[in-house]
Design goal:
single chain, 257 residues, alpha/beta, Rossmann fold, Arc Repressor Mutant, subunit A, five-stranded parallel β-sheet, four-stranded antiparallel β-sheet, 11 strands, 34% helix
Length: 257
């Protein structure tokens, strides 16, 4: 079953946009936050200004999850698409068409395992970098490759030879300390993000991802610091309501996940 999220001044989408009628599942995010959502997000922007709509699209980059509903001007829709919005549609879009367009966006998430979540970190394969909330760690491509390879099987050892083969594309050992240097630099950048114990050295040789090394509080911090979530809190929504993020950071309606 495909999943979508809803971002608006009210908790439930109106019937005309409620894709649950055509087989989708509605997710309200983790405690209302959207940092960890790796699926389509429908957003009612009828009452937002053009600059606020642009701000939403920019805040969601590089995720490209947002389908903005209620954008009536073709020129504005083109602008929103050009800056990375997944879709920008008029309010009168038929539900079947909305579902079809959302399915096309949803399929993009499945083409490649673009994201992996490791504790508070989001590994982005397209950018070959890692972010904590909206902050990128600016990894070297091979530093990213090492962590991505370790994330294949968290907790299992990956030998130096395997890293040379999978990340460096070498079938022989060049006799240098390149692997060790890149792992050391990776650890330094992870330490700056509060994850200094994430990559462990295996006594028999090689490295592994310490799946239990990152406290849960960092995962919560990721959701609370996500750029899209922060921008949503700044918008003056109708009736002063927050779209999906409660002011106390606790619960929403009980019918979401």
């Amino acid at each position: 079953m495909k999943t979508f999220g809803w971002v608006a001044a009210v908790e439930e989408p109106p019937c005309c946009w409620d894709m649950r009628q055509v087989g989708w599942h509605l997710c309200h995010g983790e405690h209302g936050n959207r940092a960890d959502c790796k699926h389509v997000l429908l957003c009612d922007v009828r009452h937002l200004s053009q600059s606020q709509r642009v701000g939403l699209a920019e805040a969601d980059r590089p995720a490209w999850r947002l389908i903005l509903l209620g954008v009536e001007e073709p020129g504005e829709r083109a602008q929103l698409l050009s800056i990375g919005c997944a879709e920008a549609l008029p309010a009168a879009v038929p539900l079947r068409e909305l579902s079809a367009r959302a399915s096309r966006v949803d399929e993009m998430f499945g083409l490649l395992p673009r994201w992996r979540s490791v504790g508070p970190l989001t590994l982005d394969l397209f950018h070959r970098d890692i972010r904590v909330g909206s902050r990128w760690l600016n990894l070297h491509p091979r530093e990213f490759g090492v962590l991505w390879r370790l994330a294949d099987r968290p907790g299992e050892a990956v030998t130096r030879s395997q890293l040379l083969a999978d990340v460096w594309r070498l079938s022989h050992d060049p006799g240098t300390n390149s692997v060790e240097v890149h792992v050391s630099r990776l650890r330094s950048k992870l330490a700056a993000a509060g994850c200094d114990r994430l990559v462990e050295t295996v006594p028999q040789g090689g490295y592994r991802l310490a799946s239990g090394a990152v406290p849960f509080m960092f995962a919560r911090a990721l959701a609370e610091s996500d750029q899209l979530d922060r921008y949503l809190r700044q918008i003056d929504w109708p009736a002063g309501q927050s779209p999906a993020i409660p002011a106390d950071g606790d619960t929403l309606a009980q019918n979401g996940s």
